[in-house]
Amino acid sequence: MTKQASPYANAQGSKTVTLSIQSWVGAQANTAVVKYLLEHELGYRVDTVQVDEVPAWDALSQGRVDAILEDWGHPEQEQRYVTDKKTIKPGGDLGVTGHIGWFVPTYFAKQHPDVTDWRNLNKYADQLRTPESGGKGQLMDGSPSYVTNDKALVSNLNLDYQVIFAGSEAAQITQMKQFAKEKKPFLTYWYKPQWLFEKIPMTEVKLPPYKEGCDADPEKIKCGYPHTPLKKFLNADFEKRGGDAATLMKNFQWNTKAQNDVSLMIAEQKLSPEEAAAKWVKKNKQVWEKWLPKKK
């Protein structure tokens, strides 16, 4: 990554902010709305940088970006940068609870209700086989950079499946839409909130329940994923010196429906993130005006 705007820029009177933007559309929706408000309500210039989840923490610690607006839980990075080095500060809850899981299309779950228990998955491996999965059932994942324990889970639960990475959220959505169009079965790693559930109803497969610490050793994981209140994080210097921009980001909190509304405009209606943000902002003043810094 090239050197981005310094977190000290605002303190020097040059109102510039750099936001980390993740590759999935929900995170793009957060960034689009905050960027729009920073530019149009507070007069900032906003740069965005797309960085994978873990490198984004390094960039945030170094001040190459000022904020991450949606984190799905990275305890190692939090320990290193928030607790030990104190180079990153928590920015509060996003207001959305995230959950990763395995899902099958609801049309398949209705035909075979027992597929929604992981203990029955091997029974359906043949039906879920693809040319890529090499004789085993396919478990479709998105990007290898996402939070995923799927390879360990498949191995430790003795499942006759192969994890196949689509490469990105967009590629995964394309594949799921194709399967759904042909009413074919599929098993996929997926997450809530996500706008695609409105287009393709999906039913979660129950994995062994998550208990605190059951995912401590990545090699030995045998449990499903937690429900995670999604959080924001700010560079520590920016949190201190970022003025109105830092205040807006700490105050920014919305719900799953709002995030999905903006996501749907970007992903399905093909609006640019800025157009989607402008449309949402125009209709929801009573929500976002509470995020703005109080006028002195």
Structure write-up:
With 296 residues, the chain is an alpha/beta fold. The protein has eleven helices and nine strands. It has helices at 25-40, 53-62, 75-84, 106-111, 150-156, 169-181, 236-241, 243-251, 256-267, 273-283, 285-288; strands spanning 16-21, 45-50, 67-71, 88-105, 137-141, 161-165, 187-192, 202-205, 227-235. Helix 1 links the parallel strand 1 (16-21) and strand 2 (45-50). Helix 1 crosses helix 9 (256-267), helix 1 crosses helix 10 (273-283) and helix 9 crosses helix 10.
What is the topology?
Blueprint lengths: L15 E6 L3 H16 L4 E6 L2 H10 L4 E5 L3 H10 L3 E18 H6 L25 E5 L8 H7 L4 E5 L3 H13 L5 E6 L9 E4 L21 E9 H6 L1 H9 L4 H12 L5 H11 L1 H4 L8
Parallel strand pairs: 1-2, 1-3, 5-6, 5-7
Antiparallel strand pairs: 3-9, 4-7, 4-8, 4-9
Helix pairs in contact: 1-9, 1-10, 9-10
Task: Tell me briefly what this model is.
With 296 residues, the chain is of the alpha/beta class.
